[in-house]
Amino acid sequence: MRAAIEVAKANRTPFGAALSMGDEIFVTAANHTKELSDPTAHAEIMAIRKLAEHLKKTNLSGFTLYTTCEPCPMCMSAAIWAKVDAIFYGCTIPEISLFMDQIDMRAEDLNIKSFHRVTILDSVLKDECINLLNKFH
Amino acid sequence: MRAAIEVAKANRTPFGAALSMGDEIFVTAANHTKELSDPTAHAEIMAIRKLAEHLKKTNLSGFTLYTTCEPCPMCMSAAIWAKVDAIFYGCTIPEISLFMDQIDMRAEDLNIKSFHRVTILDSVLKDECINLLNKFH
To answer: How far apart are CA B58 and CA B52, in angstroms?
Structure first.
């Protein structure tokens, strides 16, 4: 999660993500929607795309996604399609909603509807992630 | 929808999408997950990214998304973030589920949870879209 927070800070956005296997961080990415004029360029999507392209496969089984903010349903679904093992996130969608518009669908609500179940852990370094929202939103 | 079906056929996939405003088709795109090693490269995401990049903005208000298959929650959320006006689709997620794994979350289930409401019309040229699933899956 430390890597996800650092890449968010470096890009002056609340949104950072990292994908790791074991102790090794393979990729990090920040939100780039405005810079790229791409409404899909959330941090998690950018990280998944970067790693899948690097590995030349769409299946990211074995990887854990760390993200400063709970994945929106776009990013959660992308993680499901990529079959990541686990997602650790900082602040929750209701908490992010205090700062900006959100789709009110929690990651777990999608997980239970899915053909592939992801292990989800919330509130990881939450205070630091909320600080990012306060600082950069 | 005719353009979405044609781009799907041309790429030998059941999944095609088009974005239009009024009578003008601005972009078409097909699923390219395997070719690009990108689990997010669904037809709708590809079309949204292509148009947003072309227009140099993330807000696609005024556009209608046509897609051969009901958007999965990743694509539906991308359409919401892009603030498209409407989505017309052919076959439904329960129908696609007969051919392949799906996340069991309907587009309307996300729409009602959203800060931006999209007009949704289903079963547009449905038989032709189901033929695509039969032929290319």
So the answer is: 5
pLDDT on residue A137: 82
DSSP A135: H
Q: Does A47 touch chain B (CB under 8 A)?
A: no
Active site residues of A: 44
**DSSP bridge partners of B17:** B29, B67
Query: Tokens 């205070």 belong to which residue?
Result: A127
Distance from CA of A104 to the nearest CA of B (A): 5
Closest to A58 (Cβ–Cβ): which among B38, B72, B76?
A: B38
d(CA B110, CA B121): 15
Residue A80: its H or E element: helix A73-81
Stretches in chain A below the pLDDT threshold 70: none
Taking 90 as the threshold, does the pLDDT of residue B85 lie above it?
yes
On whether the pTM is more than 0.90, the answer is yes
Out of A33, A38, A103, the one facing B115 most closely (by C-beta) is A103
Q: Is the pLDDT of residue B72 over 90?
A: yes
